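G.,

No rush on this.
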Amino acid sequence: MYKHLIGLLCSILLSVVLATPGSALDLGRRGLLGITATPLPAGAGSIGPGVLAARVIAGSPAAQAGVVSGDVVVSVDGTPLAAVDDFLREVRVHRAGDTIRVELRRAGQSLTLAITLGAVPFETASGVDFTYDAVTTPTGLRRTIMTTPQAPAAGRRPAVLLIGGIGSYSVDYSFDPDHDVAEPYRRLLTALTRRGFVTLRVEKSGVGDSEGPPAKEVDLEGELAGYVAGLRMLKQRPEVDPERVFILGHSIGSVEAPMAAARDPVRGIVVMQGVGTTWFEYELVNVRRQLQLEGLAPAAVADRMALKEWAMHRLLIEGQPRAALLAERPAAAAMIKYPASDAYLRQVAALNLPALWAPLDLPVLVVYGNADFITGEADSRAILQNINSVHPGRGELRIIDHMDHYLTDAADQATSFKAPRAWDLTPARHPAYQTAIESVVGDWLVAQAGHSG
């Protein structure tokens, strides 16, 4: 989408269970270097390739090896770095215990360090047990993270599967507690766990510990495969009541949630900040809204919208690759900058979104925060109509004041649009998590879960 959230990680080790080491599902732990990389400042590229070590996490392997904030990372294992994606790709292929060679440039001098990667810590929270496991998909194992209340239960528990938004981000919030405020998913799922629910997250392909190609190269069906596998695993857990399993879908998760439920039935669905029209229509309305929030004059908005329509038709209808579009009209770059593959976008665009709800006769809570600039209230009302037109009374809409697309607090759409989002911001600059989402979603789930039959 036009603006995107880049996710973070957080916490330290307390109560964590792993898949049996040496088993088919033992993914191991990804390596931790401890460098936040950003593009070089304007003009800095003239002195050679590389990315900026904008932040070095205290106590990390990079810090212990002598890397400091402001260093330029020139190469990893001899591979030159032209972009941040290059840096991430070279580091993420390694597991804890691997040693990599990092070439740096500091004050005009070159130095090369051999750094042994640590293990990314496991996520923790008071009163919550974590189970790190994996599910099998056609393109490899996907990491799963399950939370369970530590408080004793009278019987099997209700459960929730999270299907998050578009993009290549981790849902394993495993280190750097200073950035705690930046993890709305983690905070919401922790709150639900403390109310008695088991929750499950599935890492996307090639993200975190997961195997497979990078998430941005996977199509919609490939991404959905991980969620469906997670849903089936959740139902098979001995602590979970398979008749009381729910899906919580956010953003594009509002599209994937009914698709997953059609393949494996659930008790109910919650969708937050979702899309209910056609994808093509949604994109046009979304971009117009953001251009207006940017303050462009009407004539400039009209010009940009004409370019957006051209790019969308070529990409989604005619099926032309993005590279061909950019070669023909470079100005269209911002209009087709998605953190997803061309195939993924075309599959979403081909869906009849209202029809996804037709086979699902189940309760659905539609949640909309009225400070969201990425979707509008009309999108959520469209989802509600899609549900209630075929299953009267099964859908319910709740509007949360001052909540934006990222489940954080904002006075209105304009405030959210202008808010800083970079993951390495200090906590004081991050928008605050909107805690109202916890009671809205939690109360509804508790009421719908009832008691085990």
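When you get to it, here's the other one too:
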Amino acid sequence: MNTAIVAIPKPALILGLLGLIPFFAPVVTLWNGDPMLAGGALSLQFGYAAVILSFLGGVHWGRALAGDRYGPTGPRLLWSVVPSLLGWVLLLTPDMVVILIGFVIAFALAFLVDIKAVKAGMFPVWYGTLRKILTIGVLAALLLTLAASFSAVPVGA
């Protein structure tokens, strides 16, 4: 097994991987389920995506409040609320394709910010590895949802 993955605390890895289930469950519904459930499945996935973006911003808020050399700087606190606001705006968007592409961009951006923070020593190296694994999972689920939206199954948000 990859030593970088082994370095991730088991509870963080297990909980993180379990956290991917709500991203993939709607994909299964869209590809195999009743078209009448598609809208609800999308709403659940989009709502969960917004919540997880808020969580990712909260990690930076917590780091800013830790009282160490990475204290509450303006840019750090500003970034900590950006993912929540992006998620909220995307939930207000009427176009499902725009929402999906927006979430893909938002999660990729959050990943890049987190990796920069890991490299700066703000977070442990294992956090960067975990974020990489989970971001790949989230992006895969969102892109599969986008692909399903262009399939023969009628899908609506």
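The mean pLDDT is 90. The CA atoms of residues 123 and 155 lie 40 Å apart.

Enjoy the weekend,
O.
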